[in-house]
Amino acid sequence: MSRRVRVLLGLGASVLLAVSSEAEERHPAAPGSGRVVVVPVNLAVRAAPEVEPGIEPVWRALLDFFASEGQPPIALDHADARALWSEVMTEARKQQGAPNLYAGYAQFARRVGEQAEFDSIVFPTLVLHSARVAGRSASWDGVHRQVEIPGQFNESIDTYRDGKIWLTRDGGKGEIAAASLHIAVLSPRGELRYEGTGGLVLLQDLIVPQKHKEKEVELTAVMRKDPFAAPDQLREGIGAAFREWPSASASIAH
Question: Rounded to whole angstroms, how far apart are CA atoms 60 and 65?
Answer without folding.
Answer: 9
